[in-house]
Amino acid sequence: MSPQPGAHTPQIPASARTWTRAALVAVVAVLLAALAPAAPEATAQPGGQIGIDVSSITPGVVRSDSGDVLKVSGSLHNNSDETIDQLEMRVERGESRATRPELVEAMRGGVRTANRTRFTPVTDRLAPGQSTSFELRVELKGNGPQALGLEHPGVYPVLLNVNGDLAPQRRARLGVTDFTLPVLSLPGGSTQAPAQSTGITTLVPLVDYPHMAQEQLPGRPTILTDDRLAKSLAPGGRLSELVDAVSERVPAGSELGKSVCFAIDPDLVVTAKAMAEGYQVRQQGGRTVPGTGSRTAADWLDRLREAVEGRCVLSLPYSDADLVALARAGLPDLIRGSLDGAELLSRELNVTVRDDVLWPVDGSLNRSTASQLADTSVSSVLMHPDSLAGTSGTLRPARLNTGNPDYAPTARKIDPLLADALNPARGQQAGGSTGLAPVGDGMPAVLDGLAALTFRASEAAVAGDTLIAPPRRWNPGGAELREFFSGLRSLQEAGYVRPEPLPAPDEGGAGGGGDSSAGTSSSAAGGNRRVAPTYPTSSERAEIPPTVLDELAAQNYKVGQLYSAAEREPALNVAPARVTTPLRNGLLHGASSAWRGNGAAASHWVDVASRTLEGVLDGVHTSKFDGQITLTSSQGKILVTVQNDLPVNVRFKLHVDSPPGVQVDDLGVLRVPANGSRLFLPETTVERSGKFTVDVTLRTEGGAKLGQTRRLRVDSNAYGTVPLILTITAAALLVLLSARRIVRRVRSRGNGSNGGGSDSNGGGDGTDSSGPGGSPASGETETTPAQDNPTAPETSPGEETPRAEDHDGPPERGADEDGPAEPVTDNDPRRS
Question: What is the pTM of this model?
Answer without folding.
Answer: 0.77
